């Protein structure tokens, strides 16, 4: 790791937080698959497609986070049992409404953003600009996605109001 010019002790703290983010993204990914498969109702077509778009994006981020850990010459967490223990995000059952799905995703986005900021802070303490750059882009993208989902939620709430 000497070619990276990073302190191994500080980098191990960054990797700990990256592994939590990796666990979060695995649960988020599976939740999106669940919602994609189980969404019903008037918003089916829009949300079925959106959930697929989001889980495709999450799958890419899972790989990039794991590869960042490997770039830092450490091991990414790779067991489901460890993901369930480490993750801030929790599993969700089936049989919930489309608007509840969006509400849950927005809550999960808040957890992801909080963990991303923690990763960036720890990486900053270790002088790890590569991780900061990766996570900064994720934050920007997730903030925009959250704004769009929130706008959809407001629109559907207005449609459900009595005239």
Task: List the SSEs and their pairings.
Blueprint: H1 8-38, H2 44-71, H3 80-86, H4 98-125, H5 129-159
Helix pairs in contact: 1-2, 1-3, 1-4, 4-5
Describe the structure.
The chain has 163 residues and is mainly alpha-helical. It has one domain (8-158): Ferritin, core subunit, four-helix bundle (Ferritin). Helix content is 77%, strand content 0%. It is built from 5 helices and no strands. α1 packs antiparallel against α2, α1 (8-38) packs across α3 and α4 (98-125) packs antiparallel against α5. The longest helix has 31 residues, at 8-38. The model has no long low-confidence stretch (mean pLDDT 94).
Largest sheet: none
What is the number of E strands? 0
| Number of continuous helical runs | 5
Q: Tell me, what's the shape?
A: elongated
Proportion in helices: over 70%
Beta-strand percentage range: under 5%
Cα-to-Cα separation, first versus last residue: 64 Å
Into how many domains do the coordinates divide? Answer: 1
Tell me the name of the CATH homologous superfamily: Ferritin, core subunit, four-helix bundle
**Mean model confidence by pLDDT:** 94
């Amino acid at each position: 790791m000497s070619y990276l010019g990073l302190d191994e002790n500080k980098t191990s703290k960054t990797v700990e937080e990256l592994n939590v983010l990796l666990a979060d993204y695995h649960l988020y990914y599976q939740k999106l698959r669940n919602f994609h498969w189980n969404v019903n109702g008037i918003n089916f077509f829009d949300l079925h497609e959106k959930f697929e778009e989001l889980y495709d994006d999450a799958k890419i981020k899972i790989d990039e986070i794991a590869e960042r850990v490997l770039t830092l010459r450490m091991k990414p967490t790779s067991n489901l049992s460890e993901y369930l223990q480490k993750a801030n995000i929790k599993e969700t059952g089936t049989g919930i409404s489309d608007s509840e799905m969006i509400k849950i995703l927005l809550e999960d986005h808040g957890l992801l953003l909080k963990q991303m900021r923690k990763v960036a802070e720890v990486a900053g303490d270790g002088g790890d600009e590569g991780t900061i750059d990766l996570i900064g882009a994720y934050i920007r993208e997730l903030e925009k996605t959250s704004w769009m989902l929130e706008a959809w939620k407001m629109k559907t709430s207005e449609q459900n109001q009595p005239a």
